[in-house]
Design goal:
By secondary structure, this protein is α+β, with helices and mostly antiparallel strands. It folds into two domains: about 130 residues, no CATH class; about 200 residues, no CATH class. Helices cover about 40% and strands about 15% of the residues. The strands form three sheets. Strands 3, 4, 5, 9, 10, 11, 12 and 13 form an eight-stranded mixed beta sheet that branches. Strand 11 and strand 12 form a beta hairpin.
Length: about 450
């Protein structure tokens, strides 16, 4: 029986904030409550809303209503006639939800009796029992066979011994089969193959450095209308009221606001989500993730070990040191309000640059993923960049979604299975500072 609160929440667009506490008791509902309260889901309101909605509709027997258009309207506040082929928020969030569910059942939910999965191509949750090996059937003990006195008195003939010999051979064969099946049933399952990318970023018992972007620096670029180099960033003069005052004078109140924002330590929600997910990936590979704010980094930190840099030069100027040998470079023309991806060596059919403009009716933005050596060549670096926060999100979505990443890695892998260093350019659309489904525009293999 639905409560009035549940009934209202399913009929009003954008109001699918169903409370799990409204559900009646059942193993399926209790499982969803535990998932929603877990650390894996506690800070992801969107994914909690999506999971709650699809489960609530399924519990009511209305799973036929679970389609992309309906979910976009009910969970994400889209209009009834929105174009889901352009706005792919449901597909993107469903992909993230599948990843989070896998993480939950690998970590705090590893002992759950039930599992819930959302198969690809569907939004209907499926509840299945945890797979357990069936116990081997007990073998009945062999009982003593009574021997008749007459048989003892007179030894059997050779013909009479033949059936007994055949029984003995069959018994030995049966025992061998039972032993083989028992060993196969109790043997530990083979370990899954290592992830072609993350196994090179996260090494067992070692730390990988992750550097999120400095959003205060992004605001400084916006105020000053020019690029701040890595050298200026290290000196820190850009955080003073006199920096750039002669070439770009600001009113006193704006100057004070600029200094206040530049000195605070901010990062974006995209960078935060990446840090949380990367820490979980590191843990699954018996590695460690060390997060350090961009302002606290020094060049020597990029010379040893593996590193992940999130954000373009506007937020993370350290990418400047690794972009020197890259083909796809980000460049912002502040006066023209055009953020471009420069193509240093265009191939046939490729433009010399891709432009993201504020007045573009299609709201195109771009993301760059680069897997490269660190500064000393004794470790690996992963760069996740974008021409906007949505562009960076598209790059992060790509590397964090194996359904997108693995087909690309398989395409470029060497005959020996090794993944070479590469660069990848993605195009997506900016929808309220979020990225929709992205497309690969170009890529390079650099070794």
């Amino acid at each position: 029986m639905l409560t009035a609160k549940q009934d209202r929440s399913l009929d009003s667009p954008g109001s699918a904030r169903i409370a799990a506490t409204d559900w009646s008791e059942s193993p399926d509902r209790e499982l969803i409550r535990r998932i929603l309260a877990s650390p894996t889901f506690a800070r992801s309101e969107r994914l909690c809303s999506l999971l709650t909605y699809v489960c609530d509709v399924t519990f009511q027997g209305r799973e036929a209503e679970l389609n992309e258009q309906k979910i976009g309207q009910a969970v994400f506040g889209r209009s009834p006639d929105y174009d889901s082929s352009v706005d792919g928020i449901v597909r993107t969030q469903a992909s993230r939800l599948r990843q989070r569910l896998e993480m939950y059942f690998e970590q705090e939910g590893a002992e759950e009796v039930l599992r819930v999965i959302i198969p690809k191509g569907s939004y209907i949750p499926v509840f299945t029992p945890r797979h357990t090996a069936e116990p081997a059937a007990p073998v009945s003990p062999v009982r003593d066979i009574p021997v008749l006195a007459a048989e003892v008195a007179s030894p059997p003939s050779r013909r009479a011994l033949v059936p007994w010999l055949l029984c003995a051979v069959l018994a030995v064969a049966l025992a061998a089969v039972l032993i083989r099946n028992h060993v196969a049933a109790t043997a530990a399952p083979s370990a899954p193959p290592p992830h072609p990318l993350w196994s090179q970023i996260f090494l067992p018992q070692q730390s990988t450095l992750e550097v999120p972007g400095d959003s205060g620096l992004v605001l400084s670029h916006t105020f000053d209308q020019r690029n701040i180099s890595l050298n200026e960033y290290l000196l820190g003069d850009y955080r003073t009221s006199t920096f750039n005052a002669a070439t770009n004078p600001l009113p006193s109140d704006m100057r004070s606001l600029r200094v206040e924002m530049a000195n605070r330590r901010y990062t974006s929600i995209v960078d935060l989500d990446a840090a949380v997910r990367l820490a979980q990936i590191a843990q699954s590979l018996h590695s460690n993730l060390q997060v350090r704010y961009s302002r606290d980094l020094r060049p020597n930190d990029l010379k040893t070990g593996n590193v992940i840099l999130v954000g373009a030069f506007e937020a993370n100027p350290w990418v400047e040191l690794l972009e020197r040998n890259m083909n796809f470079l980000l460049q912002n023309n502040y006066k023209a309000k055009v953020f471009s991806v420069i193509n240093k060596t265009p191939r046939e059919g490729e433009p010399a640059h891709w432009d993201s403009r504020l007045d573009d009716p299609q709201r195109r933005v771009y993301g760059v993923v680069a897997f490269a050596p660190n500064l000393s060549g004794n470790g690996n670096a992963l760069l996740i960049e974008g021409t906007s926060m949505a562009g960076t999100e598209s790059a992060w979505d790509f590397v964090s979604d194996d359904s997108e990443l693995l087909p690309f890695l398989k395409r470029i892998q060497r005959p020996d299975g090794r993944i070479p260093y590469f660069e990848l350019l993605l195009e997506t659309q900016n929808m309220s500072s979020s990225a929709v489904h992205s497309n690969i525009l170009a890529w390079r293999v650099t070794n």
